[in-house]
Amino acid sequence: MKKSDLPAGMYIFIISVPYMIAIAVKKQTRNVIIPQMSNKAFGFKIQTKLAGTLARTGVIHTPHGDIKTPAFIVVGTKANVKAMTPEMVRDVHAQVVLANAYHLYLQPGHELISKAGGLSKFMNWNGPTFTDSGGFQVLSLGSGFKKVLAMTTDVNAELTIAKKGDRHAWVTDDGVKFKSHIDGSFHFFTPEFSMQIQHGIGSDVAMAFDELTSLSDTRAYQEESLARTHTWAERSLTEMKRLNATTPDYYQALFGVLQGANYEDLRKQTATWMAERDFDGFGIGGALEKDEMSTIIRWCNEILPENKPRHLLGISEPDDIFAAIEQGIDTFDCVSPTRVARNGSAYTPHGRVNIRGQKYREDFRPVVEGCKCYTCTNYTAAYINHLSRAKESLAGTLLSVHNEYFIIKLVDDIRSSINDGTFYEFRNRFLKDYY
RNA sequence: GCUGGAAUCGUGUAGUGGCAAUCACGGAAGACUGUAAAUCUUCUGCCGUAAGGCUUCGUAGGUUCGAGUCCUACUUCCAGCA
Question: Is the CB of A27 under 7 A from strand B?
Fold first, then answer.
């Protein structure tokens, strides 16, 4: 294998120690976090447990550095966190970036990222990375296509499923046919192919290829789909083991993904099934109704092995984060902080607010007074209000910086509060102000 | 001064004798949870919570069953010519 084919993390093992130190010193002077290298390719260690709950703090070791958990993972779907530079991502204290196999396969292609030295190096992040398998696109381009309601968390909403002709994704037992949202071309994803893409991208943690169903699918379909997701998980695991065997210096961890919608028996069944397999960790997925989320996570995590990390896919509202951590979630990822930022909204200790609103026109205070983020220490709400109204992209950048900082700090503070034994006090105080 | 053209919602416009107000912008509010998303939804003459009611197409007349639309005069603006 050529050196250039290896993901970034592997260089460190190959190059000499003095050179490594030289890099470290150089990076230190640039005030950049140095990836903490570990001899163990991947591992998880629990630090503190919160008595009477499933909550815990700990550390996930990856080839690109350690992740203190619970941790909020920022989403960088197409190998970038939208509207932010990697320097900004570091400055908001992000520990991990999660990218997407479907998007990167379409553009620029996983082979190219592999040639570039892996995702982390390619995007100049140089920290740990996760990738999603494309499983989310089974819903967002499939049964949930153009039907926002299929993914809603609003229990009062009328749920619908996109007709087959309207979709850009079609599920078969063998895999999923996608119609590219970029050029309309067709592509077939199997579990094996998703693993090859993710392994090529070179993330530290890959997700098993799964089928994300709509809450409006029937119970019979949820059962059928869960069985398929199990088959795909098994195939993902087999293929990942094969791929890892081909790269002795690069071990990519694989998380099994739990589906089962909001059915207790299906969630417990899949947790039991996953727990028996040799996954490095687990992802809890599904279009989760807000009211049911905490219960569903508990069903899963009471069964999943304690010594492996558990990721909750696509969640970042503060109340959801508290609830999920109490039920034993270690990592989260979510597009919300950057998406709502680009749409003009900011997280504050008193809830989410629309900075584009008339009330901020002449508000010359920071978005959040006392917030230590770059945005709040340098800019006023009125200025961002102006930028947003003027459709200047800097508005999205500044609000993304603030929102990511806000959510990451929240999870960091929760971690500290568990370690300090002040979790409940912190949670009650925070949520009282927030809602 | 002459000739020609124009005048419709906050702005720019659509409306070609038959229920005025289309579209865009601007404005207000809201949504966004493994990114087809720097996007989407609703409202935006007046009164009314609503059902609904009432006004309005520069001004004043005229033709017509019926005028934003055709005619006359005036006002203002634009262009060309002096």
Answer: no
What are the phi and psi torsion angles at A177 (to 5°)? -90, 125
Q: Residue A134 CB closer than 7 angstroms to strand B? A: no
Residues of A that are catalytic = 132, 333
Residues of chain A with CATH 3.20.20.105: 3-334
Task: Using the CA of A133, give the nucleotide whose C1' is nearest.
Answer: B34
Total Cβ atoms within 10 A of residue A435: 9
**pLDDT, one tens digit for every residue, chain A (435 residues):** 333 433 433 333 333 333 443 443 333 333 333 333 433 489 999 999 999 999 999 999 999 999 999 999 999 999 999 999 999 999 999 999 999 999 999 999 999 999 999 999 999 998 999 999 999 999 999 988 876 555 555 555 666 788 888 889 999 999 999 999 999 999 999 999 999 999 999 999 999 999 999 988 999 999 999 999 999 999 999 999 999 999 999 999 999 999 999 999 999 999 999 999 999 999 999 988 899 999 999 999 999 999 999 999 999 999 999 999 999 999 999 999 999 999 999 999 999 999 999 999 999 999 999 999 999 999 999 999 999 999 999 999 999 999 999 999 999 999 999 999 999 999 999 999 998
Q: Could you tell me which CATH class the domain A3-334 is placed in? A: alpha beta
How many Å apart are A94 CA and B3 C1'? 73
Longest CA–CA span in chain A (Å) reads 62
Half-sphere exposure of A66 (CA within 13 A, CB side): 12
Written as one string, the DSSP assignment of A85-109 is -HHHHHHTT---EEEEHHHHHHTT-
DSSP classification of residue A45: E
Strand B: which of residues 227-256 in chain A lie with Cβ below 7 A?
none
For the segment 209-228 of chain A, residues whose CB is within 7 A of strand B = 210, 212
How far is CA A254 from each of CA A142, A199, A205, rounded to the nearest angstrom? 24, 10, 6
Instruction: Return the amino acid letter for A132.
Output: D
Residue A321 identity (one-letter amino acid): I
Q: Which nucleotide lies nearest residue A311, CA to C1'?
A: B34
Tokens 């990511």, located at residue: A404
A391/B6 CA-to-C1' distance in Å: 34
- ipTM of the predicted structure? 0.86
Nucleotide nearest to A208 (CA to C1'): B34
Which bases of strand B have any atom within 7 Å of the beta carbon of a protein residue?
26-40
